[in-house]
Structure formats: structure tokens, C-alpha cells
Amino acid sequence: MTLETNIDPTPKGEVENKDKTKSVFVRTYGCQMNVYDSERMTGLLKPLGYKAVDHAEGADLVILNTCHIREKAAEKVYSDLGRLKKAKKEKAMQGGEMKIAVAGCVAQAEGAEITKRAPQVDMVFGPQAYHRLPEMLAKAARAKGKILDTDFAVEEKFDRLTTRKAEGPTAFVTIQEGCDKFCTFCVVPYTRGEEVSRSVDQITAEVRSLAAQGVREVTLIGQNVNAWHSAPPKGHVEIKTKPNNNGVWGLGSLCRHLAKIDGIERIRFTTSHPRDMNDDLINALAEEQKLMPYLHLPIQAGSDTVLKAMNRGHTADHYIKLIERIRKARPDIALSGDFIVGFPTETDEDFEKTLEVVEQVTYASAYSFKYSRRPGTPGAAMAKQVAEPIKDERLARLQKLLEAQKQDFNQKQFGKTFDILLERVGRHEGQVIGRSPYLQSVHIDAPRDMIGSIVKIEVTGVTPNALSGRLVDR
Ligand code: 5AD
Ligand code: SF4
């Protein structure tokens, strides 16, 4: 899926423009990885004089950081581009210029097709190319043509993205990108490329720098985050963990290592694959209290026939047994998952098995989707595609069950006492919002200068989407 690269190595300084402030609007679609990438793009543009704004109209640069995972997400980009065409025209009529860039997975998958379908687009670049944004802008300023960069040099990107500004007490940190699992429904192996892990030294440096800026919680992200592996850090002498057999570190060892960084109080990671949930990681969940007791572990479907057709590489029984092991190791853990209904060949009986898994596991929260046929993936070409009304009906039944489990889980928090990390001010005067260990939003009355601290609260109220609580003495 690597397409032509059309970039010249213009030195960064060429487009530096500190005198004149320009504006950039970045719209993010899809997953947390895109949220992270958008933040990094905004960070890269700052030294070039770009200020982030919250609307596209009148902006000098608009970047759509896109998602290709389901058809709806990809189509949304084109409808947004339609609106941007008008905004670009208006800006031109006022004597200005708006550059439009399509970044992310739609850019990677569709490349030059985008500028054919939407000629108002000036730049198209994939998720592994955005660190070259300064060069691309320099080139766009000089040339009249379109810029296309969908190269897959992910290591180069990691090397270039070294400094980072914190945006509050929590932060995402990419530790791994891409995927080699090739689930037959999924575009990720094609849009994000093969699995690549960042080095321990790079990750440690980023987390240290974030901690020094006041970050208390890091969420390690990757499409297959628990497939992360790397050599131990240079010169490390004693580390409490046992590295995996061949001396390579896995995610468990990394989490223990990061937990030692001063200021880091909470660590999360997402998204995990059942096949990569090894003993070292399960032991780390049991032993390292800074690891939050919340695990996003998708199964996708409950029928072994469907799981096989999906190329998931595990059965429902393997997943259930894995959950039992994890719960035994960390009894307070809560689970979250992803589900797809209506994958080709899924019968009513197959679907019932998905409901059975949900009943058996019980989830604190979950995402569920109708299967979306993605061009180029094996699933799209499979016979026995499931009709849309059947998918609708299955999704409604599954979501009803998952929602009931979520509400039940939330209700169970009533009267409990736990630590929350205060993240931001709330909508009401004197209100501050934090997150429970289970990622639930918790509203409390507290002074805003407490943001960034971890406080003990008692849960005094439960609403469908949030908890409320009161501060309690330590
Ligand atoms: N159709 C529907 N859902 C999908 N996902 C990935 N690909 C598809 C698809 N083609 C879902 C999976 C995955 C989540 C990120 O998106 O559940 O875990
Ligand atoms: Fe997609 Fe499967 Fe890889 Fe997850 S494991 S990113 S669902 S191919």
C-alpha cells in the first residue's frame, strides 16, 4: 500500500515565520492514535508560527486527520471536504489562502484518489509521514501542484518526534504502531503498516518529559499495544522484572519501568489483543498498583466459526480462560471490549454465542459495531455477507445488553471510596472533573487549583454517563 512519495528535503527553517501568526484547524476522526497524532502535528506547526484554532472558517491551514476503519468514518471526510470547499473559496475572495490537508488512514488508503475526488485538497499524507509536515508546507508554498506523501517510514517518524508539550495531567504516548495480525475485517495492517515498537529509551524520555511538565497519568497506545517488545534500556542494571525469555522486554516490563518515573502515578494501555496477553503482563497487572485496573481486550465475536473467519487466532474459550486468569491475578479489574456483528457467515446461532460471551464476562463498558465492508480486506470479498437489517437487529440486542452491564457496573460504584485524578474544570461553578480507576468521569466540588492532583473521593451519585462524589479525608 506504499504509494509514491513526492517530497523534497527542504530544510525545516525555510518556512519558519515567527513574525506572522497563521492559524491551523485540525479535525480528528477515529481512534486515540489519531488524537495523539493530531496533537503532535499541532506541536510541529507551532515553531512555524501556526496557532491552533477551533473552527475551519478563515483558517490558513485545515488538516483533516482521518479514519478508515469503517465506511461511515471515511465518507464523513468527503462530506466535510465539501463544506471546506466553500470556506476555501470565501477565504480566497477575501484575498487569503486556505490550504487543505487530508492526513491519517483515509489518506494512506486512498492517496491521490482524494485530490481527484476533491480537487480543493492541497496535501495528502499518511500517518507515517506527518513529521515531514514542515517540509510539505514549504513545498506547498512554492509549488502549485499537489503534495502526496504516503511513505511507511515509521521508525524515522519516531526518531523525529522527540520533544512534546504536555496539555494537562494526562497524556497519550504512542509506544507501538501498526499490526501484523491481519484480521480479515480490518484495514489497519494496510493503513498503519507492519507492527513497529518504539524503543524503551525514546518512550522513557517522552514520559519523563511529560512527568516533569505535570503529567500524572500516561496511556500507552498502539493498535496492538501488548505486542510491544524491545531491547531493555541501554545500561540498565537492576530491574525488578524478569525480561521475557530471550532478554527482550514486553509491555509488562515496560510498565514496571515507567512506574518508577517520578511523578507518574497511573499507567494505562490500549488496545490489547488476547493473543499477546502474556504472563509477564498479567503479573505486572497483579503487582504494579500504578497500572490501572481496567483492560480493553476485544474479542469481536463469540462464535469460533466466526472468529476463525475473522482470522483472530483464538477461540472464545481461550478468551474466557484468559479473562479468568487476569481476574484471578487482579481481582478489582474491570473489562472493556470491541464487538462486530454481522461479519460474513455469521448465523443467528453464531450471534447468540456473542451474547453468551458478554453474559459470561460482564463488561464495564464496550464498543460495538455493524460489520463494514472495507475494500481490499479479505472480509469484503467473502461470500455470505449479512443483510443490513439483520445487522441492525443484532447490534440493537447486543448494545442493549452491554448498556445494561455498563449501568450495573456504574451503580455498583455507589458508596465506594477510591482515588481519582482531577483533570479539568467542570461546567458548573466550583466543579472539577476527574477519572475513576475505571475511566468513569467523576464530578466533584473542589477548587480548580487541585487539578493535577489525585484525591480520595466517595461516590455519592450515579448518572448514566458519570459519577459524582465528595472529597474524603485521607
Ligand atoms: N467493520 C466494523 N467494525 C470494525 N472494526 C475494525 N474494522 C471493522 C470493520 N470493518 C472495529 C473492531 C476494532 C475496532 C477498533 O473497530 O471492533 O476492534
Ligand atoms: Fe485490526 Fe485485528 Fe490488527 Fe486489531 S489485531 S488492528 S482488529 S488487524
What does this structure look like?
This protein has helices at residues 32-45, 71-93, 104-110, 113-117, 133-142, 154-160, 188-191, 200-212, 251-258, 279-287, 304-309, 316-329, 348-361, 388-412; strands spanning 22-28, 50-52, 61-66, 99-103, 123-125, 147-149, 170-174, 176-177, 196-197, 217-221, 229-230, 249-250, 266-270, 294-296, 334-341, 365-370, 417-425, 431-435, 441-445, 454-463, 466-471. Helix 9 (251-258) runs parallel beside helix 10 and helix 13 (348-361) runs parallel beside helix 14 (388-412). Mean pLDDT is 90; it is low at 1-18 and 238-243. A six-stranded parallel beta sheet has the order 2-1-3-4-5-6, with helices on both faces. A five-stranded mixed barrel has the order 17-18-19-21-20. A three-stranded parallel beta sheet has the order 7-10-13, with helices on both faces. It has 14 helices and 21 strands. The chain is α/β, with parallel strands linked by helices and 474 residues long. Helix content is 34%, strand content 22%. It is globular, with a radius of gyration of 23 Å. It has three domains: 5-151, Methylthiotransferase, N-terminal domain (Rossmann fold); 156-411, tm_1862 like domain (pyruvate-formate lyase- activating enzyme); 417-471, Beta Barrel (OB fold (Dihydrolipoamide Acetyltransferase, E2P)), CATH 2.40.50. The relative contact order is 0.08. The chain starts with 21 loop residues before the first strand and ends with a strand. Strand 20 (454-463) and strand 21 form a beta hairpin. 5'-deoxyadenosine (5AD) binds next to strand 15.
